[in-house]
Design goal:
Blueprint (H helix, E strand, L loop, with lengths): L3 H6 L7 H5 L12 H6 L6 E6 L5 E5 L14 H18 L4 E10 L9 E11 L2 E10 L5 E11 L4 H18 L2
Antiparallel strand pairs: 1-2, 2-4, 3-6, 4-5, 5-6
The structure holds octanoyl-coenzyme A.
């Protein structure tokens, strides 16, 4: 039986530095996170992404049917997740690794599953290592706003996840020693 500590040390969990700043992408240009690399597709349903000349990021998205909450509409957790993903890709599209520190989501209208949607995301301001990013999800065709989000992303160096693994091992060790 594996433990959480075993999983953290599994060699295929190790990423090279370039995996963070220049991650594998789909044909639609979508940067792939950990578990989506094996599937070669974004499991949240982000199908295409691009950064325009003005610095706005555009995403073609569709809510997968398995993310249905109410009848024919997305679970709110999907809406929050995909906005976290899209807004968090703005630093990545600028070759910068960051993690979400804060995220606020307004659920304006129910989000239909299996329909083409668009997410637009932009930088409001940058202060120190903090990127303040906003975005919105709209229905296609047309431009009805379904959800809005804003948050703070904090830039990290590529040692972030290794430091986390060491911290986790310390937590496990102290929990074991204290019984
Ligand atoms: C290709 C795919 C690549 C993979 C991308 C993966 C993206 C993710 O995993 S996102 C996952 C969800 N988010 C997380 O797991 C983050 C968990 N939280 C953390 O790791 C930490 O709390 C972290 C990094 C945000 C801040 O760590 P901390 O030790 O407080 O850092 P610290 O050095 O004190 O602060 C760094 C900066 O963050 C700011 N900050 C910290 N927490 C917050 C917060 N909650 N809100 C706003 N700002 C904050 C500080 O003010 C500081 O700003 P500055 O450098 O401008 O003075």
């Amino acid at each position: 039986m594996s433990t959480s500590g075993d999983r953290a040390r599994t060699p295929n969990r190790r990423w090279a530095g370039s995996d963070f700043q220049d991650p594998p992408r789909t044909a639609g240009g979508v940067a792939l996170c950990g578990a989506c690399r094996a599937a070669s597709a974004c499991r949240l349903g982000v199908e295409r992404e691009r950064l325009d000349e003005a610095g706005t990021a555009w995403f073609d998205v569709s809510c997968p049917h398995e993310q249905e909450g109410g009848p024919n509409v997305a679970h709110g957790g999907w809406t929050a997740s995909v906005l976290d993903e899209c807004l968090g890709h703005v630093p990545l599209l600028n070759s910068t690794l960051s993690v979400t520190a804060e995220l606020s989501v307004s659920f304006v209208k129910p989000v239909p599953v299996g329909r083409p949607l668009r997410v637009r995301a932009w930088v409001e301001k940058r202060e120190g290592s903090r990127w303040y990013i906003s975005g919105e999800m709209t229905l296609l065709p047309g431009r009805a706003v379904l959800a809005r989000a804003s948050g703070i992303w904090v830039t990290r160096d590529t040692g972030h996840f290794d430091r986390h693994e060491r911290w986790l091992a310390e937590q496990d060790a102290s929990a074991t020693s204290s019984g």
